[in-house]
Amino acid sequence: MELLKEKILKEGSIVGNDILKVDSFLNHQIDVSFLNEVGKEFKKRFNDVKIDKILTIEASGIAIASIASQYFGNVPVVFAKKSESKNLDKDVYETNVYSFTKGKEYSVKVSKRYLNEGENILVLDDFLANGRAALGLKDIIDQAGANLMGIGIVIEKGFQEGRELLQKNNIRLESLAILESIGNNTVKFR
Ligand code: 5GP
C-alpha cells in the first residue's frame, strides 16, 4: 500500500535495530483518514470471505479494527484484553503470548460471550514480528470453535519469523507493507 509506505518513510523512526516507531499515525496518535484507507484496503484483500467478527488485541489494534469494521458491514470488533480487571467476565478463553516489544510473556483473555462456535473471524493487528500475538489469537479462536479466516497486518517485519510461523499453521496472511530490513537507520521494503 503506497500511502502506508510513504507514511513510514516520512514519519517512522527506528529504535535500536529492530523496532519501527510509528507513533504519529498508528501507535500513539491516530491518523483517522489514513486508517480509513487501511480499512478499505483490508476489505479489498479479504473481499472473498464472509466475516462475522473482527478480533484484535489491545491497545493499538482497537482503532485499526474499529475503523476497518465499517468496510466489513460494521461487524462487531472484539479485542483480547491484556490487563487484569475486576470487570472482565470470569468465563474467558485465555492464552499466553510472548511480547516482542516488552520482552516478557503475558496472558490475554476474551470473554466466552463474545466468540462463538462457527463464527468466521478476521484477525487484524498493527505489526507482525515473530507472530506470537497472532498465534495467541488463533489459539483463542480455536478454543471457541470459531473459524480463523485470515490475518491482516498493517506492517509486517519480513526479517522476523512471523510469516513462516503463520504459513506453518496454514493461516492466510495479508500485510499492507512488508519491511525487508530496518538496519542502518534505513527502511527497505520488500
Ligand atoms: P509478534 O507477536 O508478532 O512477535 O509481535 C507483534 C506485536 O508486537 C505487535 O502487536 C506490536 O504491538 C508489537 N511490535 C512488534 N514489533 C514492533 C515494531 O517494530 N514496532 C512497533 N510499534 N510494535 C511492534
Description of the structure:
The chain is α/β, with parallel strands linked by helices and 190 residues long. It has a single domain, classed as Rossmann fold, CATH 3.40.50. It is built from six helices and ten strands. The protein has helices at 2-11, 23-27, 32-45, 60-69, 132-144, 162-168; strands at 13-15, 19-21, 53-57, 77-80, 92-99, 104-111, 120-128, 147-157, 173-181, 188-189. It has a six-stranded mixed β-sheet, with helices on both faces. A two-stranded antiparallel ribbon has the order 1-2. It has a two-stranded antiparallel sheet with strand order 5-6. It is globular and about 45 Å long.
Distance linking N and C termini: 12 Å
Number of domains: 1
Find the count of extended strands (DSSP E, 2+ residues): 10
- Please provide the ordered H/E string of secondary-structure elements: HEEHHEHEEEEHEHEE
CATH topology: Rossmann fold
Strand order of the largest sheet: 4-3-7-8-9-10
Listed once per kind, the bound small molecules are: guanosine-5'-monophosphate
What is the CATH architecture annotation?
3-Layer(aba) Sandwich
